From TrEMBL, chains A, B:
It comes from Umezawaea endophytica. This is Helix-turn-helix transcriptional regulator. Signal peptide: none annotated. GO terms for molecular function: DNA binding. Residues 20-118 form the HTH hxlR-type domain. Keywords: DNA-binding, Transcription, Transcription regulation. Pfam families: HxlR. PANTHER family: TRANSCRIPTIONAL REGULATOR, MARR FAMILY, TRANSCRIPTIONAL REGULATORY PROTEIN.
Amino acid sequence: MCPPAMTLSTPVPLAEHRACPVTDVLNRVGDRWSVVVIVLLGGKPFRFNELHRSIEGISQRMLTRTLRGLEHEGLVSREVFPTNPPGVEYALTALGESLLVPLSALARWAVEHHGELAAKP
Amino acid sequence: MCPPAMTLSTPVPLAEHRACPVTDVLNRVGDRWSVVVIVLLGGKPFRFNELHRSIEGISQRMLTRTLRGLEHEGLVSREVFPTNPPGVEYALTALGESLLVPLSALARWAVEHHGELAAKP
DNA sequence: CAGGATCCGAATGGATACTG
DNA sequence: CAGTATCCATTCGGATCCTG
């Protein structure tokens, strides 16, 4: 399968059938926290605990894992300042910023149509 | 937290602190198959087994569950034709179609920047 | 054809305690 | 401050068998 767009640009690495780009991106960013982090970092760089305080409900472990994941995928950069106590600053990379665009569109849809989705109970 | 956009429109149902709209939407649609199904149905209505054949790798159980979820959230409609053998047709609702728009933007980003994401191994 | 019902392994994610 | 290390519950999702 895979969205129409793919048929335009597909060399397709059949070797080890990787899922289609869309599925792949969602597997990387579609977890519980990644998008939240990206959107926050879209506003300004954050320090670790600053992020921790800003994201309600996230555990320290998950924040670490999420950041490591995003960093490792090239969406977020991590800079260490060897001050005392040490400071670490996270920010979006250029790639991360580019992802922020379509993500913002999705966020807009979310706030606009949020009420129309049926409740879960 | 929650993206800037939220501060513009937030009545906030504090009662039972539901996550922010963005997180909520991602929890509903950010699973393994929902987006794929939505994008496919964006092209035309599908019958059950037609979908099953079109989505490589999905199990019958997951297709059912995904469709039930989307239907129950108001993103997909389900119409039964009491023919013999019976036919069931799935299509996007108006809400589903509206979601397709930002999703397409994300899909476009995916196919364009797919190669830039670092590999996982 | 379009599913419902079970079973089970794998991945996700929270809580907690400890560290340079 | 910015993590790492464990432990454990829940969820996700595939495989398989069965039905109107």
